[in-house]
Specification:
The complex is a heterodimer of chains A (479) and B (152). Helix content of chain A is 8%, strand content 42%. The model of chain A has no long low-confidence stretch (mean pLDDT 94). Classes of the chains: A mainly beta (479), B mainly alpha (152).
Chain lengths: 479, 152
């Protein structure tokens, strides 16, 4: 062999040595045009008993997991989704999506225990729509995740959601079809469940959302007056519909943090000169007495009564790990049936054939991610850690989890229940929940662009089957 | 192949300049918006998928170039180096691949440790210099060869 030919051979071999692994990785990352999330990745039993695989077991379809069909609705609402140019409360024009002609859509109100029935009509959203009841632990078939719990509703179609407003608190609804685009461009609204039999407390709902580059409070860009007499106490319900956390604080006096993610805190104490960090997708309820000014990241303001002077954001952040007083939990997290790990990282690779730097879960890239398998009645612990360089607001559908510790430091305050938990890079949380709501539930990052970049896993109850597929005829694309 | 090698090396050097211009413009534009137009930048703004804040496009260009385009150019360069008759070509390509990877890693980790941007800037100079010198030397060598050939 001439030296020239040998040289060429070495060059070809070296080239193949670089390109072949890349080609294999590329090929393996390609997603089929439609797939069931149940077939994604690998089962993780969290050290608990291995349930029979869904392939061997003809289980109950998740479509049967609904509210009592015989029961009449107490609250009936029709929500119509449109693609349109609309005017925000501030007067600014925005091209996006509306619910009943506005964004934010109408606030739905129900009393604890009432059955809520919402008829969703898609008038002109070409990608299709769904409605997810963020923070409400609805039956699985009502969860509104395209391709997981239903097909996206096409233009001209409709879908009826029915669920019991089982737990008083502040929640919100939003599309879970192409959600990273639809939520950002307006397809959401607030949902408030008030306690049964209680004296109606005066409340103000503040829906935080950034339209384009404009931060708003319920569509207002500047100050939003709340017309109450000085001396009046108001429950301020704050909903963060954006993709990043924001600081919330009160000027002109102290406040109490009454609730997080729809769950009341035990024995909340007055807070001054501290801000609350509100997770993306999360909610907080503050008790504020007028005159006062409630500020949201310095970009929006509620002025209660005659108001108060504006102050910059307090540098100290209220630590929910030690706020309020401890109380008994409905289960014992020390006697967990399953212990899962959810580690978020980031590494280069391919995702559906696209090269890039992608979020990883337990070292794997989407769709090769864990499927957390549980059985009804399990006490489940999860260790969530983040080494990805970015913050991730982790959102588990259909359940509320209690925070046990952060970076190994135990929670000493009120039980802190969450459905949306901000996990900053370099930090970890231990949480626990009771597996009491059968279904297939997303467990994903609520920085929605991150979810569309693959930061999505699922929690699955053993013995269920699922008739829906991501992709396919309905073009389901939940993220 | 030799000229392809040289073009790719020159392209890497040019990309460093584009990166520097994009990121400084992005920051200047964003500060102008805050300072002159009363714009407010917060986490929600940066995390918005379709945020149209001033400077957003330049930030995006910096990210796409650094994380995608430059690694692809560097990898192509390495492959071309196996075929091109460039003295020490594969070694030089390998060093450039290493510098590109280091640059991307420094840029990424700087999100968690901001002081790393200082090393990111130093490494940008190293990458630019090494690529520019390589391209220049190849040019001189070609020039000498042609000049030599002409005199024979």
């Amino acid at each position: 062999m001439s030296s020239e030919r040998r040289r060429l051979l070495i060059a070809v071999v070296a080239t193949l040595a670089i390109l072949t692994p890349l080609a294999v990785m590329w090929q393996q990352s390609r997603l089929p045009s439609s797939y069931s999330v149940m077939d994604m990745g690998y089962a993780d039993y969290g050290g608990g008993p291995k349930a029979m695989s869904h392939h061997e077991l003809m289980g109950r379809s998740i479509a049967t997991l609904v509210a009592d069909p015989a029961r009449k609705a107490d609250v009936s609402v029709t929500l119509t989704a449109r693609r349109q140019r609309f005017t925000l409360a501030s007067g600014r024009q925005f091209d996006g999506y509306t619910v009943n002609g506005t964004s934010p859509g109408p606030t739905i109100r129900a009393v604890e225990g009432q059955l809520v029935e919402v008829r969703l009509v898609n008038e002109s959203v070409t990608d299709g729509v769904t409605l997810h009841w963020h923070g409400i632990d609805v039956p699985n078939a009502e969860d509104g995740v395209a391709g997981v719990t239903q097909d996206a509703v096409p233009v001209g179609g409709h879908y009826t959601y029915r669920f019991v407003a089982s737990h008083a608190g502040t929640y919100w609804y939003h599309s879970h079809q192409v959600s990273h685009a639809q939520v950002q461009r307006g397809l959401f609204g607030a949902l408030v469940i008030t306690p049964k039999g209680a004296v109606q407390q005066l409340d103000a709902v503040a829906v935080l959302h950034t339209y384009g580059s404009r931060a708003t409070v319920s569509g207002q860009e500047d100050e939003t007056p709340v017309a109450v007499a000085d001396g009046t106490t108001v429950r301020v319900r704050v909903i963060n519909t954006d993709n990043g956390a924001t600081g919330v604080w009160v000027d002109g006096g102290s406040y109490r943090l009454l609730a997080v993610d729809g769950y009341d805190l035990n024995a909340p104490t007055p807070v001054t000169d501290e801000s609350v960090r509100l997770t993306a997708g999360g909610r907080i309820d503050l008790e504020v007495t007028a005159p006062a000014r409630v500020q949201f990241g310095g970009v929006g303001t509620l002025v209660l009564g005659s108001g108060a002077a504006t102050k910059p954001m307090p540098t100290k952040v209220l630590d929910l790990l030690s706020y309020g007083a401890p109380a008994a939990l409905p289960f014992d997290p020390e006697r967990a049936d399953r212990r899962f790990t959810y580690t978020v990282g980031r590494h280069p690779g391919f995702e559906d054939g696209k090269p890039g730097l992608w979020w990883s879960i337990n070292g794997h890239l989407f769709p090769d991610v864990p499927m957390f398998v549980v059985e009804e009645g399990d006490v489940v612990r999860m260790h969530i850690s983040n080494h990805s360089g970015a913050t991730h607001p982790m959102h588990l559908h259909g359940h509320h989890a209690v925070v046990l510790s952060r970076d190994g430091k135990k929670a000493t305050g009120s039980p802190w229940w969450v459905d949306s938990l901000d996990v900053a890079s370099g930090h970890s949380y231990d949480i626990a929940f009771l597996a009491a709501n059968p279904g297939i539930w997303m467990d994903h990052c609520h920085n929605l662009p991150h979810a569309s970049q693959g930061l999505v896993a699922h929690l699955m109850y053993a013995g269920l089957t699922e008739p829906f597929r991501v992709g396919g005829k309905a073009d389901n694309s939940p993220e | 192949m030799r000229s392809v090698y040289r073009v790719l090396v020159a392209l890497l050097a040019a990309e460093v300049l584009v990166q520097g211009m994009a990121i400084t413009f992005a920051i200047a534009r964003l500060f102008y918006w805050i300072d002159q137009d009363g714009g407010v930048a917060n986490k929600a703004l940066f995390d918005n998928d379709n945020a149209h804040y001033p400077g957003a496009t330049a930030f995006m260009i910096h990210g796409m170039n650094g994380l995608l385009l430059m690694p692809i150019i560097a990898l192509l360069l390495l492959i071309v180096s196996f075929f091109a008759k460039v003295a020490g070509g594969t070694k030089r390509a390998g060093i450039l691949v290493g510098l590109v990877v280091l640059q991307a890693a420094l840029g990424l980790f700087a999100h968690a440790v901001p002081a790393l941007v200082m090393l990111h800037v130093l490494n940008a100079f190293a990458l630019f210099s090494y690529a520019a010198i390589t391209a220049h030397r190849m040019g001189s060598a070609d020039h000498l060869e042609t000049a030599g050939a002409a005199t024979v």
